[in-house]
Amino acid sequence: MVSTILWLLLIAFVGFSIAFIIKNVTIKKRALEKLKTINTHEISDWNGDKLESKRSQMDPLADETVQTIMSKREEFKINHLFESIVKDRDQLPPDTPQELIDYFDKSAILPEWADPDLIALGQQIYLRHGIWIGLLLCYKSLPECYACARGAEVLHQTARLNEENGSLETYSRRIAETAQFVVFAMSPGGLGVRGKGLHSTQKVRLIHAVIRFFLKKHHFDTEKYSEPINQEDLAGTLMSFSALIIEGLEIIGIEFEPVELEAYIHCWRVVGHIVGLDDDMIPKNSADALKLGHSILDREMAPSDHAKELVRALRDFQDMKSKPILGKNSNIALMRLMMGNEVSDLLGVEPISQDKIDSMQRKIKRITWVGEILDKSLIFSMVLQFLTKLGLTMMLRRMTSADIINFYLPTSLTRDWNSHQRR
């Protein structure tokens, strides 16, 4: 009986392995053909004048939708509607405003250039390296976003990331939602018609419009900070989640093949379209994405006390969630390894010896070296993807027990809404 079960398990494993190999070889072969049609050397002119002009531009589709809904001044119905969106996009309440239905229909349309084969390969790449990408999200992407002082002011004022005076519970929930957004968007099938990634990106776009609505209603200083969540800030965030992640992976010894690199960036180009980026703010290829990311970071990086507050909250979160795993001072070493000393100093990250930073890099590289060897074997790659899925699930559960992107009016803004209603 035992031997029969073992034989059946072996046959099942072999069958799954063969199917996995055929599927992945086919996807990569098709993607390689598509790569021939991409000019990987084309670089846009991301000059300061163009990027500055984009700071006055936002998202007409989402903003007009929210403006129409909010103008009805029916707070209870609005909150009920948003709760319904959270629970199930495909079962909106019967009294859903037509403008909101139109928003979901229009924002779900992928651009003509979106390629299913490149998306499929890009999401496979994510699945193979998701744990490290998740690590980089906390130690590179988010803090580099905070380094952009004008954009960080929006995060601080809305208090979506540090409300309740920096409550770790609240902060954990916000970080977990960001991680979930990335996992949903970059998991296989996530950008399909019924994909979690598509729906969560639409919700994030709507959340941005809600925040813009309230900030502008309550005299956000656009002269000093530009429009809230403008096109440049949105592009900078998307590049920090994509092109600048590639830089972080290279630091720890993970390098993509050219077709993998373009496929991964292609996924984020599609996400950029769904989340409301203008066509002329979507980079053309991986090199263009990297140039855009650095152009924005170099322009917007500036000292900010509010940015330092956001980083302190992030550091507290890291210490609470990962210190027992990574060891003493590892969070400081990781942040300085991933961002470099200039950005780290600007954000008030504590100093640490270069020896400890180099030691951290060597430790991680030893782990990624083994992973990259296994990844080159398609059979082991299948096992690695399974373990990555498991690891991502455990990572999200360590952050939060929720499995949705919440849609709610931030506490500070809800309070303002109530005051506005009484006047």
From TrEMBL:
This is ER-bound oxygenase mpaB/mpaB'/Rubber oxygenase catalytic domain-containing protein. InterPro entries: Lcp-like, MPAB/Lcp_cat_dom. One of its GO terms (molecular function) is oxidoreductase activity. Signal peptide: none annotated. PANTHER family: ER-BOUND OXYGENASE MPAB_MPAB'_RUBBER OXYGENASE CATALYTIC DOMAIN-CONTAINING PROTEIN (PTHR37539:SF1), SECRETED PROTEIN-RELATED (PTHR37539). Coiled coil: none annotated. It comes from the Bacteria. Residues 165-356 form the ER-bound oxygenase mpaB/mpaB'/Rubber oxygenase catalytic domain. It comes from Algoriphagus zhangzhouensis.
